[in-house]
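Hey team,

Filing this mostly as a record. A colleague (T.K.) asked me to run one chain through the structure pipeline before their review meeting, and I want the input and output archived in the tracker in case anyone asks later how it was produced. No errors, nothing strange. Just documentation.

Input sequence:
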Amino acid sequence: MSQNIGVSGSPDIFAILSAKFPESIFFKFVHLWENVSYSLIIVLILGLLAFFTCRKKSLIPGRLQSAAEVIVGGLDSFVCGIMGPGGRKYTPFIGTLFIYILFMNLSGLIPFIKASTASWSTTLALALCVFFYVQYTAIRELGFLGYLDHLAGKPRGILAFTVIMPLFMFILHIITELIRPISLSLRLRGNIWGDEVLLGLLSSFGIKGLPLLFFNMLMATLTAVVQATVFCLLTAIYFALVLNREEETV
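Output structure:
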């Protein structure tokens, strides 16, 4: 039930190695920064998968290339379905987020491995990346003054000639933008951490708890996919909300 227990209920391998070799500075370091360590391991795994997938591209793709093309095509359809054809240039960012979060979520189901997305430090970092990229995109697409005008709210009608309503909408939109990374990160962290606690508890029941543990492992797998999808769905919506509205009518 502690932070050294993974979603599968097994002890964290970095915690085991740190206790086994208390004099080792390396194991102490990776245990201290275990969330970052597991995140980097996922990066390494995905990097190797991408390398072997793209190493020998062919007009008649093999299994690995076919699987990659299906995944990329599905992610592109997902993003463009929310943002329109103009959203294709954001598919690499949102698609990478989905795959990265999904692998981190699922890694916690492996014995002796911890899901780094069960830590708020990891999910908040991901949410801040989304936040800053969305703000950058808004300023790039609308211009700085145009973005301020967007935050003041549209359409305004007769109230456009007053200061009160645009100022109120401006403050409300600023608060909303600042809250988004917090809600985005806590939603992901809360669900993965909840599965971690539940499965850790069920694993302590021994053989009697195996049926429930197996069932909840399946539910945790579903949760991992759903939460990665929700995170990227909201990310795509945030981008869509700040894109130039003139592009939507083209």
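Quick notes for T.K.: The first helix runs from residue 13 to 20. The chain has ten helices and no strands.
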